[in-house]
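job 3f2a | input accepted
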Amino acid sequence: MDFALTDEQELMMDSVRELLRKELPPERISALDEAHEFPMDTWKKLGDLGFLGLPVPAEYGGAGASILDIVLFSEVLSYGMSGLSAAFQRSACYGGVVIGQYGTEEQKKRILPPLVSGDQMVAIALTEPDSGSDAASLSTRAESRDGGFVINGQKVYTSGATQADWLIVAVRTDPDAPAREGLSTLIVPVDAPGITIRPMSKLGNWTIPTCEVFFDDVEVGPEALLGGLNEAWTTTLTHGLDAERLVIGAHCTGSAQRCVDIAVEYAGQREQFGRKIGKFQMIRQKLADMDVQVQAGRLITYHAAWKLDAGLNARKEASSAKLLTSETWNKVAYDSMQVLGGIGYMMESELQRQYRDARLYTIGGGTSEIQRLIISHELVG
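job 3f2a | predicted structure (381 res):
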């Protein structure tokens, strides 16, 4: 098995690192976080350089890149600023992958090019007040009318809704069908009459707004249907969630690596009892354990990407990557803060943001408990 990256992959990662060093020094990231603002200027530059088009077929302006390319990009993007990676997994990746595979030709031509350029973004409206881990129990309705649909209902925890131009909305189109057989997905412009978006207050990930979205007699035409009618569970939703989990694995790995690097640098500088704290056995063991955990998460994520690129089923591996890396980021953020001690707990430290941001990822994109259920189902049925 060859673990070497290609020259092109190394060049891509180096280019992204250099861009983020210039565009997003630590002090700017802290300011954006405190202001709850997203660096749209940097996002647009990533689009101009073609990076946002990695998941999109070449005929629509993208790069048609491999899954591993997308994973590598997500990891280095998250290392630089986790909010950028979160936007990529939601809009360019989830939106680009799902629309690229299941969209009509008209949908692809209309939506994919501005996603690639960074001029537009997509948000995914799936979770509801009474439908979280049990996604198939969603109740937002889309009734047929004049060949199109009329949407009524409410979504919660919709990441990036106030930044998006389009919502990919999971709806129930056949109320009489079994839960998983009556679902469809619709592409809805955020400015459609009858949509109300309300930002929610949350613990972390402040550069990406999380929102409630209300649909009150929102009318869309037949061209809004993404994928087959009543077929969303086995197509757009399942495919999108599997892709999202793998990219989340890369996202968590990049941010966890950032935490480790902060702790290692501090341990090599901070002196107590007449020597660097990195010379103390307890600190060295903590650093070693963190490094092993991050490496394990990286390898399982790369392996899942390899399987998908080879055309193999990787549902278990994608859930394994999401489970391991999200729990690793939480653990590593905690342990890195322990290495830094009091300064790590202060708001001037980057680790307080990593600590807050990491907590979402054992919940969002499918909880750790759901990932364990998926893995066990793949193992024993």
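job 3f2a | The chain has three domains: 7-120, 124-229, 236-380.
job 3f2a | closed
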